[in-house]
Fold this sequence. Notes:
Bound molecules: NADP nicotinamide-adenine-dinucleotide phosphate
Organism: Marinilactibacillus psychrotolerans
Strand content: 15-25%
Distance between the termini: 24 Å
InterPro entries: NAD(P)-bd_dom, NAD(P)-bd_dom_sf
Protein name: Oxidoreductase
CATH architecture: 3-Layer(aba) Sandwich
Mean pLDDT: 95
Low-confidence stretches: none
Number of helices: 7
Structural class: alpha/beta
Oligomer: single chain
CATH topology: Rossmann fold
Domain NAD(P)-binding: 7-194
Order of helices and strands: EHEHEHEHEHEEEEHEEH
Amino acid sequence: MNILVVGxxxxxxxxxxxxxxxxxxxxxxxxVRKEEQVTKFEDKGIEARLGNLENSVxxxxxxxxxxxxxxxxxxxxxxxxxxxxxxxDLDGAVKVMEAAEDMNIKRFIxxxxxxxxxxxxxxxxxxxxxxxKHYADKFLMNSDLNYTIIRPGMLxxxxxxxxxxxxxxxxxxxDPMTIPREDVAQxxxxxxxxxxxxxxxxxxxxxxxEITEALKGL
Length: 218
Ligand SMILES: NC(=O)c1ccc[n+]([C@@H]2O[C@H](COP(=O)([O-])OP(=O)(O)OC[C@H]3O[C@@H](n4cnc5c(N)ncnc54)[C@H](OP(=O)(O)O)[C@@H]3O)[C@@H](O)[C@H]2O)c1
């Protein structure tokens, strides 16, 4: 199965591409925006396709030939303004969904953000970011795509813990509200073909359950 990782050069993306590469089932295809990033992945034996989330839907479709599933883990990051949040986290994500639908690619995993579905829980300074995530997620839920929306808590770069808490209830919160990026990557890997995750959206933080066990509870 060919998995297009949008945001492959990012922190979750890097973990995910490595994990996919180490399986027998999946072949990662890195979607990146710079020539040097293409070279970086190709040097590791990973196919990379050059594109940009600010480009048109028809341009994005060119990166989707022979792709079976898409993981969207891109983001404009904290150092850019609200304009880029709208163009990448919202419009970029929606354009990838539109392109996927046009290309008849059904499976789509979205990395959203903790509590993006509950407006009342958005902090004042992060409201534009959460709004972008919220409406991208809504577009996905209203699409024909077979989605899984993963809403992680605050991401950390510490080593994987391997234990998570999944919540589908809107008001539940687990403690701590953080999760290592590597655990999110592992969760994505395990969710790809797990039909319990199909058409589901959930928050995730570090918790008490092994990832595989936690997914059985969905
Ligand atoms: N930080 C948190 O605590 C937190 C919590 C919950 C959810 N999230 C979300 O989790 C996701 C992944 O997080 P992360 O920390 O792994 O992100 P990250 O390291 O910032 O990676 C984001 C990636 O998106 C790529 N990107 C940005 N603009 C692009 C464009 N125009 N075209 C193509 N690619 C573009 C970046 O490319 P370059 O490498 O070229 O810059 C980068 O590789 C993000 O959506 C983030 O919002 C974050």
